[in-house]
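Form P-L/3: holo structure prediction, ligand manganese (II) ion.
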Amino acid sequence: EDPDAELAVVSLPSYACQRHTPLQHHNKGLIGALSILAENAELSENEGRGVAFRRAAALLKSLPQEIGRAGQLRGLPCLGDHSLRVIKEVLEDGGCREVEATKESEQFKAMKALTGIFGVGPKTADRWFREGIHTPSDLQRSGHTLNRAQQAGLQHYDDLNLPVTKAEADAICLIVERAVGEVLPGAEITLIGGFRRGKQTGHDVDFLITHPEEGREEGLMVKVVSWLEAQGLLLYQKTTRNSYLEGKDGPARPPSNMDRFERCFSIFRLSAEQLRRTTHSTTDPSSRVNTDLHTVPPQSALRRSDSSAQMDGQVRVESSVWSQGSGSRSWRAVRLDLVVSPYSQFAFALLGWTGSKLFERELRRWAVHERAMTLSSHTLYDSRQKLYLRAGSEQEIFALLGLEYIPPCGRNA
Ligand code: CTP
Ligand code: MN
Ligand code: MN
Ligand code: MN
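OUTPUT (holo model):
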């Protein structure tokens, strides 16, 4: 064999925040296999192992072409022994035994099903699994006392496990925009999370709210949530106050991935009528097809294309939530996350909440290890200068970190 063929197809930097990671990539099989192992590690609360598989998968997502032989990966970063072993096996045998065994494992299946309940994390799911509870129905029958979040999660289990479409996100956006406009004129709302990165579906909808006059945003969340509740639009909500105090509460405190903004984790009641109205009035021609339906949303919102049915590397084959059985549903439940940030921290909040989770983790790791800086969703702290660095845009933050700017669509690590 030609030894040159064994050289890496391309050279890539090792931090995901130094590379573009597009939504569409060329190694779906390999990435799917690594993602299963990452997911299993996360469900087993083996964070380090999970991150190692996620980094390997993200590296493959940045490759400009499909990999045919493992030799083509020589010299590339982020690929540990274990990940390379999995990649080789998939390339040579068309599958990996460890991945197949994981997918078939009762524990993995049960942990996935149980953590798929809103309000249930791996610790609780594991405890239940060891009591013989493997499914949401087992849990229902068990008579366990559930907290408010878990009760809502169980109640809306099917809806919350169906992908949320961009059309549904747009419909919710219009309503939240209205709520925000009513309670604080001049406040601004931005779609963040996966949809900002260009995803066509998500597991929830995320919005960041701010006001150009610093301080006006204080107490805004409570008002927005009350407005939505008064309209009967929230099936569940838990609001947390802003607990951030610069200096007192900055990088000197134990590092935490959780930021301290006013935020609300909720379950939104999206009606078919609201969805229909949005898809009819939108100026985006792609979502204006089949508007001849009267009682149900247009087909664009109803049918999920093959590519949009893909979530987290796994293809879900299911009919739309809006057209179950013979009739059509009048509403569905959608997970909705709201965050309020002061204007001065907006760029940091935007960067911190756009994701992906791995991209965010890599940004913080880069900041600490390569620049001796602490990045959060509030600010950037330079430990050498002992100084908070201000920024008015994401571009400025990348520049302060000495990184090339990566637009949201390139942050799908
Ligand atoms: N995030 C956070 N703190 C949380 C939850 C989420 O800072 N308690 C951030 C994540 O780091 C991510 C963003 O919020 O950057 C969006 O998180 P999430 O909605 O969980 O993921 P998405 O990337 O939006 O993916 P999906 O489409 O599945 O919702
Ligand atoms: Mn290993
Ligand atoms: Mn999201
Ligand atoms: Mn979210």
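COMMENT: Residues 81-82 surround manganese (II) ion (ligand 2) (CB under 6 Å).
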